[in-house]
Amino acid sequence: MRTIKRRTALAALGAAASTLFAGAALAQQTMTLRLHQMLPPQATIPAKAIVPWAQKVEAESGGRIKIQLFHAMQLGGAPPQLFDQARDGVVDITWTVLGYTPGRFNKSEVFELPFMSGSAEQSSRAFQEYVEKFAADEFKDVKLIAVHTHGPGLFHTKAPVTGLESLRGMKIRGGSRIINNMLTKLGANPVGMPVPAVTEALSKGVIDGTTIPWEVTPALKVSELVKNHTTFAGQQGLYTQTFAFSMNRAAYNKLPDDLKKVIDNNSGVETAAMFGRAMDEGDKVGRAIAEKAGNNIVALDVAETQRWRRTAGTVETDWVNEMKGKNIDGAKLASEARALIAKYSK
Predict the structure, then answer these.
(1) What pLDDT does residue 235 have?
(2) What is the pLDDT of residues 110-148, one digit of tens each?
(3) SS (H, E, C) 168-209
(4) CA dihedral sign of residues 155, 210, 189, 168
(5) What is the dihedral of CA 163, 165, 171, 173, to 10 degrees?
(6) Which residues of the chain are under the pLDDT cut of 50?
(7) Three-state DSSP class for 70?
(8) Rounded to whole angstroms, how far apart are CA atoms 161 and 183?
């Protein structure tokens, strides 16, 4: 009997030791995370936000997290599939535009409404807090690292847009259903497509112009393909788009606690602000390239900008009414979004 007890004790000790060693091995194991996104590596967000983020995570993990970067859809699929690639574990982390999956991120769409925001850093801080408070359920299937916006959206066109009348009938690329509705209200013919498709669409005459912020124009060679750019009076852009930087939940859960903390420390409002800041700096670079090329930059005055505001304002009414049908108080969410943008714009 004593021998059996001794064997049982030894077996228990052995099992405990094995568990301990397995835990120690896991703690020392290098975890490789594959990060997939749609733009070429020289574009603003890959170069100035994603790469620095990855380097910071690797350094803070003591080299135990390795981030493998896959740019320009190298791992396959199309940009609208990126969010689901992270959700489904096809890859570990993705960065994408929320508007590429229409009707899916209803509460988050409020930041895309016309003339909602300006500075990308300020509105990205606001958007992150907004999502945490009012739209977290839209990201429940992933470990959300951060959300953010770009800076002021504007027109880049072959023929100049000098007022509402000159936009009418133009085929203009829009990046989301909210933006396409706005383009329709303004008299343009919207053509929906992800941003990587813009270069070919402009060069082949599929579109007459595009709505994008300044920051992405260098990577897409937009200032070479069109010679006219139209901006608006005031701090706010015609529109903005929203982005998500997401991680597969199972991949996050597999990390040891100390490595989860590294990811957590590089998630949230400061990460959102870092991405937004990169967008703001990219806007300066993109505009400078257009100016150096001698392109025509049209600055609409306050009175003309007000005409655009009034015409585009019905987009918000449409959105609020649509949200009502989904039992979402769109008017309240728009008010909350503006309050948060104001909070971070002080």
Answers:
(1) 85
(2) 999 999 999 999 999 999 999 999 999 999 999 999 999
(3) CCCEEEECCHHHHHHHHHCCCEEEECCHHHHHHHHHCCCCCE
(4) positive
(5) 30
(6) 10, 16-26
(7) strand
(8) 13
pTM beyond 0.85: the answer is yes
For residue 70, the tally of other CB atoms under 10 A from its CB is: 16
pLDDT at 19: 47
CA–CA gap between residue 188 and residue 183 (Å, rounded): 5
Cα separation, 340 vs 130, in Å, equals 7
Q: How far apart are CA 1 and CA 83, in angstroms?
A: 60
Task: Give the bridge partners for 299, in sequence order.
Answer: 231
Name which of 292, 300, 289 is nearest 222 in CA terms: 289
Q: What is the DSSP-derived secondary structure letter of residue 43?
A: S
With b for 16 or more beta-carbon neighbours within 10 A and e for fewer, the 176-197 pattern comes to bbbbbbbbebbebebbbbbbbb
Tokens coding 83: 């969010």
Let me know if 100 is exposed, middle or buried by CB neighbors in 10 A (0-12, 13-18, 19+): buried
Distance (Å) of CA 265 to CA 146, 206, 212, 233, 271: 11, 44, 31, 38, 9
Residues above pLDDT 90, as percent of the chain: 91
* Helix 314-324 × helix 177-185 angle, to 10°: 130
**Distance from the Cα of residue 343 to its chain's centroid:** 21
